[in-house]
Every structure is written in structure tokens, then in C-alpha cells.
Amino acid sequence: MFTRFRRKRLHPVLRELVQETVITTNDFIYPLFIRSGEGIKKEVASMPGVYQMSIDEVLKECETLKSLGINSIILFGIPDVKDSVGSDALCEHGIIATALRAIKEAHPEMLVITDLCFCEYTDHGHCGVLNPKLKTVDNDITLENLAKQAIVHAKAGADMIAPSGMMDGMISAIREGLDSAGFSHTPIMSYSTKFASAYYGPFRDVAESSPSFGDRRSYQMDPANRREAVLESLADEEEGADILMVKPALAYMDIIRDIRESSNLPLAVYNVSGEYSMLKMAAKAGVIDYERVMMETLLGFKRAGADIIITYHAKEAAKILNNS
Ligand code: PBG
Ligand code: ZN
Question: Do 73 and 99 form a contact (C-beta atoms < 8 A)?
Fold first, then answer.
């Protein structure tokens, strides 16, 4: 006997009619890693298909993205010079400010988001200025610098600011900074619930941002904590975040659902480097059907409650979506 379940699975069109979750290219934000120079497009061994690019190459990449229907990007910078405060990130001629002006001029209709943090810019690789006594990031001095960095990005044309450093009070500080500099129209997408995760390993190769000592556990969250995960995102909502985020995504599907049900703000997930590399390496080893596993994974994020997916798979997924 067919019952009410299998009857609806026989005709492929009916299967589509009753499908509850859909992914479109409008859901994606594609990460780009930018360094100085010209004609540079350097693949990183741990993340096949992901490159460090010079600005001219990034402009070409934007063309490709647009043709695939991907209109949102998030920028990460690899500066020529690193120092104890991460000065390149605070300078109007730093790598990100320079890239922003070029991208917004060549592709004004793209949504250009900037990752706001200091780990790529500091010589010690931590996400802010160090407090020598505590031997970790000083919260309040870093807040001042985050507000400055946000204003530099906004002035250079950033359409949205995405602070990823997990400092307490970062959203208030950045919101106040932006508002007082005349950028009250610039939204903030907070990395509001970000865990201290081993899944960031490959990213730190690409972004050259591994901490030179210790780890990030005094600012990023303990992966064991579910209630605190909700509190972190709700605090950012109160401070004025426009979009919330869970990061990583794959091992945190429960957290995505929890935050979806605790807040009415749009929710992003970051499908991080380690998640991407695992699929790539499994595909290389011939043990999975890469495209199907990728699409199933992305669908899972949306089913869990995400509205937006930041993913290195965006181009590959768009090709599949555009052909179906
Ligand atoms: C910087 C930052 C990180 C990622 C995004 N922004 C790394 C980190 O916190 O160490 C990780 C992204 C990824 O793994 O793909 N704070
Ligand atoms: Zn950081």
C-alpha cells in the first residue's frame, strides 16, 4: 500500500511542488582574499579552488560571479606589512580600503561586505591589540580600533560591515562609530555566535592569520555551550546588529535552529574553510559524489534556519542551480 508519503514522491514535478526548502544564488556570499600586486592568483594547497588574488584579478573574478548570479562578496585582506596593532587595517591606503574603492568603481551594483578584524593584520595573529598583563586581546582598546576600521571601510565604499573578532560590546562601539561619522545607513552583519573552532585551519593558511602563540579561546566561544550561543547573538541584536551569524555551520546546526527561533533578525551561517576542504579532499579521494554532498550540505543550513550562506562553494553551487 502506498500511503500519504510515497504517493507524493512518485512524480518529479509533484516532488518539487511539495519541497519545503529551496536554495537560490541570492542566498550566497562569496569570500575573497586580497593581496597587493598585479596578476596574482595563487591557489592555496589546503583549499583547492580558493585563491589569494591581487585587485586586478578580483575585478575579473567579480565579473565571473555576476555572470553566475552571485552579487554579494565578503573581503579579507592580506597586508604587505603586519605590526602589533594591525595598522594596515586602519589606513585609508591599506589593502582593503584600496580594494574597496576599485571594486565599487568597477562593480557599483555588487554588495561588498568587509570582514572587520585584526588577525590578518597583526604580527602576533590575534584579533586585536594585546594586553601584556592578560597575554591576550585587550577588549576596550580593540573596540576603539574596530570603530576606526569600520569608518575606514565605510568611507572606502563598504556596503556592509561584518565584525568577526568576538569582542564584548563590539556592535555598540562600531554602530556608534559609524553613526557619528555619517554612516548610519551602513548595516552591520555580526559574527554574533562564533566558536573557537578547529575548522578554521585552512582559512588561516589562506589569510595568513594563525596566532603566533596561544589560541582564540579567550574571545571565541566554547563549542560546548548552547545557551551561551543564544545569549551572544541576542546581545548583538540588542546592541544594534542588523544580521546575526553562526560560525562554523556544519557542527552547529542545533545552534542555527536555536537562534532562528530566538530572534527575528536575518540569520547568516559561515560554511567555513575546514568544512569546504573536507568535501574537496573526500572528492579527491573518490569517496563522495562531491556535487550532491555539497548541495545537500547547503540545503541543510537553510533547513536549519539560515537565510544567508557564506560559502566557498558558491560558484560551484550557482552553476548547478543555474542549470537546473
Ligand atoms: C577572522 C576570521 C576567521 C574566519 C573568518 N574571519 C578566522 C579565525 O577566527 O581564526 C574563518 C573563516 C573560515 O574558516 O573559513 N577573525
Ligand atoms: Zn580575527
Answer: no
Residue in this structure with the C-alpha cell 530572534, named with its chain if needed? 263
Tell the residue number behind the cell numbers 591576550, with chain if given: 136
pLDDT (tens digit per residue) in 216-272: 999 999 999 999 999 999 999 999 999 999 999 999 999 999 999 999 999 999 999
**Do residues 187 and 154 make contact, with C-beta atoms less than 8 angstroms apart?**
no
Binding site membership of 146 for ligand 1 (Cβ less than 6 Å): no
- What does the CA dihedral 149, 153, 159, 163 come to, rounded to 10 degrees? -20
CB distance 118 to ligand 1 below 6 Å: no
Q: How far apart are CA 146 and CA 135, in angstroms?
A: 20
Q: What is the pTM of this model?
A: 0.97
Cβ–ligand 1 contact at 115 (below 6 Å): yes
CA R_g for the chain: 20
Structural domains of the chain, ranges and CATH numbers in brackets: 22-323 (3.20.20.70)
* Strand-pair partners of 270: 310
> What is the total residue count of the chain?
324
Contacts of 12 (CB under 8 A, 6+ apart): none
Ligand 1 center from residue 278 Cα (angstroms)? 16
Q: How confident is the model over 146-198, as pLDDT tens digits?
A: 999 999 999 999 999 999 999 999 999 999 999 999 999 999 999 999 999 99
Candidate of 47, 209, 252 to mutate for ligand 1, largest count of ligand atoms within 8 Å of Cβ = 209
Q: Give catalytic status of residue 194 as yes or no.
A: yes
Phi, psi (rounded to 5 degrees) for 160: -155, 150
Question: Which amino acid is it at 10?
Answer: L
Determine whether 247 is an active site residue.
Answer: yes
Specify the ligand 1 atom closest to the Cα of 209: 10
Q: How far is CA 3 from the centre of its chain?
A: 43
Q: Cell numbers 592569520 correspond to what residue?
A: 209
